């Protein structure tokens, strides 16, 4: 859908639900799209381009994901075997490991 159609008063809640349904297989992506659409249409309201925000009438998708996998010592060793000291990747992971260790 073109941005003009979204910002004009033509888009209703059903249209937004259809857009979000296209991303239903990835609930986090659908929820991110929903957040950005809310921001966009809130801005359109502040500019007097729209009188309502139909995205706010939709519900976010339930995200049942477990989050990111934490690396085991073996995986960190594999990474350091490929990325030698002095590389940006090595430095970034070293800093991250140090930061995580400081949190307990």
Automatic annotation (TrEMBL):
InterPro entries given in the database record: DNA_brk_join_enz, Integrase_recombinase_N
Highest taxon in the source lineage: Bacteria
Keywords attached to this entry: DNA-binding
SUPFAM superfamilies: DNA breaking-rejoining enzymes
Name this protein carries in UniProt: Uncharacterized protein
């Amino acid at each position: 859908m073109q941005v003009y159609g979204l910002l004009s008063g033509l888009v209703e809640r059903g249209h937004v639900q259809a857009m979000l349904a296209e991303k239903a297989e990835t609930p986090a992506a659908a929820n991110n799209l929903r957040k950005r659409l809310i921001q966009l249409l809130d801005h359109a309201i502040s500019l007097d381009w729209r009188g309502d925000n139909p995205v706010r009438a939709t519900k976010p998708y339930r995200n049942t994901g477990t989050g990111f996998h934490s690396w085991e010592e073996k995986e960190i060793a594999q990474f350091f075997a490929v990325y030698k000291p002095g590389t940006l990747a090595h430095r970034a992971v070293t800093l991250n490991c140090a930061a995580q260790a400081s949190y307990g």
